[in-house]
Amino acid sequence: MPIVVMKFGGSCLTDKISFKQILKITELYKNVKKVYVTSAFSGITDLLLKTAQNLEDIKDIDKNIALIEKKHIDIIEQIFKEETEYYFKVKDWIDDKLSELEDTLADIKEFGLEPYYKDYISSFGEIISTYILDQYLASNKIDSVYIPANKVIITNDEFNNAYPLYDLTNSRVEKYLIPILENPKKDIIICFTGFIGRNKIGYITTLGRGGSDYSATILAHSLYNVGIDKNIKVILWKDVGGLLAINPKYVPQSSLIKNLDYTEAKHIANFGAKILHPKCLEAIEKYKIPLEIRNFDNPLEKNFTEISEHTDVKHIKGISAVELATIITIISGSMVDVPGILAKIFKKMSKNNISVSLVAQSSSEISTSFIVKAEDSKKAIQALKNSEFYSEFFEIKWEDVAVINIIGLKVLENQTKAKIFNALDKKNIKVKSISQSYDELNLSIVIAKDRLIDAIKIIHDDLYEEFEPIN
Ligand code: ASP
Ligand code: MG
């Protein structure tokens, strides 16, 4: 039987109506084996971290813990009949976890908020919400089992942003999940905590903020590896119907991207489309496991985003923007044909922990431009000016700019580029720099900051037919 790993984010776990919706989805997917990866309730992770960061005043701590408790109790009072076995079980669970939380906060006050503690503290959100979902299903006579991810997803030691160790995780999935999923006699839903894992020695780690998407794809990856059934799919239930070609803040009426391949999706996810956790594609790409982004409120909606090995070249997939960027340019006649100049420049950036996004250098080698986040620009320029290789032969220029990324195989065609440049020209928008690496389906264009919205609008209007139609 096919396996579907579904992720329910905080926006799917808000009240009685949303929990009922999960029952509806369960019914719709009754013919597949299901794993439900669950995020914390909305706002809880932030609140947990805020609590751990404000331990000066005991009144603040009490207030925050009371708020965390209230947010959970409000929901369980809606979804469980009071005075029932399930209600009490869940209430006890919450009480237990909150008292563990309190003990940990006392430790943090004593020892400081080490990275490990940060992960331990933020894990409570998922540990509580997932157990609640599991018990909710049970109370509706649906067979389910709660499995905490820190028994299964084994990661490296990078707290707050851990990376899965796939081989070790595969063995755990084989041991704990496969027997349930491959049991022909019983149909049991696995309720699995998103966001968290553990390192080899057993400390809880987290996969980075918004990491529950990633938990879902890591599981799909491992199930594929160790299970018999290779027919696996991931569904991320969201409060939107999928990925949009353009953020509605730039163009209110934008089309939904129906199909995109893993590479296109990574470009879109990396450039600020908060809908998808950028890292999560890496886990499923190798095995070509499809991922769907669907609207939680409308699970039967025909239009949704599917990321798979299939795409269509007919369309520009999307436009994204970096609003606050700085372009730094190094100019010097003496850079020509001298090996190692770029290495030196980028090493400086790396030493200062500055990430470089776009890079442009024409083959005359007289100047090199690159983009850093605007907030890093001062540090970057200082680092270059203080460097041993900086001399009077170099000139450094910089400007705060915006970057537009146009994504899709379609941008490999000359015609598309011609139309984009024509469109910008019509509005007198000067292209300050461009970059597209070899065979790359992302064309980046640097323009003045204050022309960003005009630029996106005119590209969208002029190249209207190249985008997927609005449904
Ligand atoms: N609860 C975690 C966060 O807020 C993970 C997630 O929601 O995916 O970052
Ligand atoms: Mg969240």
What is this structure's SSE topology?
Elements: E1 3-8, H1 16-28, E2 33-38, H2 44-53, H3 58-79, H4 85-111, H5 115-139, E3 144-147, H6 166-176, H7 178-181, E4 189-193, E5 196-198, E6 204-206, H8 212-226, E7 232-238, E8 259-261, H9 262-270, H10 282-285, E9 291-295, E10 305-308, E11 318-331, H11 341-351, E12 356-361, E13 367-373, H12 377-385, E14 395-407, H13 414-426, E15 433-435, E16 442-448, H14 452-462
Parallel strand pairs: 1-2, 1-7, 2-4, 3-4, 7-9, 8-10
Antiparallel strand pairs: 5-6, 9-10, 11-13, 11-14, 12-13, 14-16, 15-16
Helix pairs in contact: 2-3, 2-5, 3-4, 4-5, 6-8, 13-14
The structure holds aspartic acid and magnesium ion.
Magnesium ion binds at residues 9-10, 39-40, 45.
Order of helices and strands: EHEHHHHEHHEEEHEEHHEEEHEEHEHEEH
| Sheet having the most strands | 8 strands, mixed
The CATH architecture of the largest domain can be named as: 3-Layer(aba) Sandwich
CATH homologous superfamily caption of the largest domain: Acetylglutamate kinase-like
Distance between the termini: 33 Å
The CATH topology assignment of the largest domain is Carbamate kinase
How many H/I helices?
14
**Could you name the CATH class of the largest domain?**
Alpha Beta
How many domain modules?
Answer: 2
Low-confidence stretches: none
Got a strand count? 16
Helical amount: 25-40%
Strands of the widest sheet, in order across it, are 3-4-2-1-7-9-10-8
The helix-and-strand class reads: alpha/beta
Mean pLDDT metric: 93
Rg on CA atoms, Å = 25 Å
Ions, cofactors and other bound molecules:
aspartic acid, magnesium ion
Q: Given the C-alpha coordinates, what overall shape results?
A: globular
